[in-house]
Amino acid sequence: MAQAQQQADRAPTVGTNAARSVDGAEMLRAARQIAQEVAALHASDVDAKARFPQETIDALKAARLLSAPLPVDRGGAGLGLQQLGAIVSALAEGCASSAMVLAMHYSQLGCLQRHGGHHAEINAFIRELALKQWLVASITSEVGTAGDTRRSICAVDANGDQLLVEKNGTTGSYCEEADAILVTARAGADAAENDQVLALVRRGEYELTRTTAWDTLGMRGTCSPGVKLRATASRGQILPVPFADISALTMVPYA
Q: H helices of 117-230, where?
């Protein structure tokens, strides 16, 4: 834990970029406008049809709100938790599902930036995400662990520069619509259930199969069915910090 905290403390902070000035208040105003003019208009249809709030997410991308937590020198806005919370809260007034998707996405960005920002492949992904406004989901639950995200049955199978992971997730919120997914798994075939890593897999590197349906009243637009994931990706996409520390220091506090 201490080692992970030291690495987190060394993570890049908000930079100064003269080419781009970021105004948190302006981003909050944009979120409120999107809530009123986009999210609220589609909220009933999103919930009734249990469909993804694509119109709202497209508007958030256009306003560059998906990269808001990232440092300015990496293409983000460098906003802190209080500012991000205000943005999510404003969006929730228009559509609860849209706000929940954004909150989960921000949580994943926090993990990537804080615990992988110095890692070459993760850093490259972060910069590309900011440029293209990608959406990040996660699968941390698993059938057979009784909802305990700090235990995994599946394990990473690393062979050379590649990793293979197959996970039977209890839920996979908006995974079918995401551009990348963060997945928990045991560090290896011989690792204990709680000896976990967090791996980034990008669209095109994984296959998803729905296994269950979940009627999440009021938040059906999060699209949270059970899913099986099979992914093959670069070994360099495993975050270089144990998931136990990522969960305690970032994922849970963000949530």
A: 120-132
Order across the sheet with 196-202: list the strands.
136-139, 180-186, 196-202
- Residues 235/157, Cβ–Cβ less than 8 Å: no
For 159, 173, 207, the CA distances from 232, given in Å and listed in that order, are 10, 20, 9
What letter represents residue 168's amino acid?
N
Give how far Cα 57 sits from Cα of 223, 238, 242, Å.
14, 27, 31
Single pTM value for the model: 0.90
Could you tell me if 127 and 121 are in contact, meaning their C-beta atoms sit under 8 angstroms apart?
Answer: no
* 218 CB burial (10 A radius; 0-12, 13-18, 19+): exposed
**Rounded CA Rg of the chain:** 18
Q: Give residue-wise pLDDT tens across range 99-116.
A: 999 999 999 999 999 999
